[in-house]
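Ticket #4471: structure export looks truncated?
Reporter: QA, pipeline team
Priority: medium

Steps to reproduce: submit the single chain below to the structure queue and open the exported record.
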Amino acid sequence: MTEKDDLTAIKVEARKAAFARRKEAQSEARSTRGVSHLLSVVADHKGKVLSGYMPIRTEITPVPVMAAMAAHGPVCVPVIGKVGLPLRFARWTPDCEMTKGSFGADIPAKLTFIEPEVLIVPLLAFDRKGGRLGYGGGFYDRTLERLRAKRPTLAIGYAYSAQEVAAVPLEPTDQLLDAIVTDDGVHWV
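Actual output as written to the record:
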């Protein structure tokens, strides 16, 4: 077994544990506290293009924050294309018509693509060093690498505090978060 195979196996097990912790942590009270913390961070970036996401499974929802920020500047959501490619981002408004996209996440029915400067990023697990464990497709890693090569790009992980782990298993291609916002507060990296 190679070192890469070992890391792959470690990440598979870490994802299973993270799914269980997130499901257990999910509650409306925690989500409400998370919304106020997230809004306090993104409010400093009014007018910049903000990317949120439409939650799937048991992800904490950023939609209330996205709706509040839509009055101050463009908001978009990720659109997953082909495997191995970065994400693209479609303009979103609170009242836009939505349809099912890849992986079951809703996307705008009419796709007008824009590039975000500030991203609210979903995750399964995080650590205080900015490590993020996602679903394993590498979409956000490729996307953040591409965006950061063009200009400063802020990546804010959004999660329940119960999703924190001591250390996320990382590969050289994994992109670090700049901050993590949880139901317990804001953690800058």
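Status: closed, not a bug. The export was complete when the record was re-opened. Leaving a note from the reviewer for reference: The two ends are 34 Å apart (CA to CA).
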